[in-house]
Design goal:
This protein is of the alpha+beta class. The protein has three helices and six strands, in the order αββββββαα. A hairpin with a 5-residue loop joins strand 5 and strand 6. It comes from Mesorhizobium retamae.
Length: 175
């Protein structure tokens, strides 16, 4: 009986001690938290002739496409049936007024290894449409021109919109 009581007391102390060790002490060391200032600005501007305060009533129009329809699409050297792939659209650079300034095309490499990003003017891309309605992207520049072009440096662009899901929290990103 005595052994059981002693064993129970020892287990209780060990479990309780580790639970106390895991308890976080808020604001340890007495250092006061500093609040960082936050500034907010518009990401895009409203198209001319539209109400900038419109919410939820904008409808698709003929000729509009989603950026996601381009990202990840292969780009071909011509509109011929046997055209070779020259790269893949990896991203689009947008201006503050929502216009596409450049397409980032991944070229070279094999299965993404050794690939480099090249920024091309949007007028370098064309949409080819076959008589059955199938579409694909065609590049005016040659594969050699793309491979010899300088690599695009993403680090020189401002960071985009933070994704709360990446940080595991729904609050704004910590600075």
């Amino acid at each position: 009986m005595m052994k059981t009581a002693l064993l129970g007391a020892t287990c209780a102390l060990l479990i309780g001690g580790s639970a106390l060790a895991q308890t976080a002490t808020p604001n340890a060391g007495g250092a006061a938290e500093t609040e960082m200032s936050v500034s907010t600005k518009d990401v895009f501007t409203a198209p001319p002739g539209t109400d900038p305060n419109t919410v939820g009533s904008i409808q698709p129009k003929d000729g509009q496409v989603l950026a996601t329809n381009f990202i990840g699409q292969s780009v071909y050297e011509s509109d011929k049936a046997d055209a070779a792939t020259v790269g893949e659209v990896n991203d689009l650079i947008l201006t503050a007024d929502g216009k596409i300034e450049a397409a980032i095309v991944g070229v070279g490499g094999f299965l993404g290894v050794g690939e480099k990003d090249v920024a091309v003017s949007p007028n370098q891309l064309q949409m080819a449409t076959r008589s059955d309605g199938k579409t694909w992207l065609v590049m005016k520049a040659t594969k050699d021109q793309l491979n010899s072009a300088p690599a695009f440096d993403r680090t020189k662009l401002a960071e985009g919109v933070a994704k709360p899901a990446d940080s595991g929290t729904a609050s704004p990103p910590a600075q």
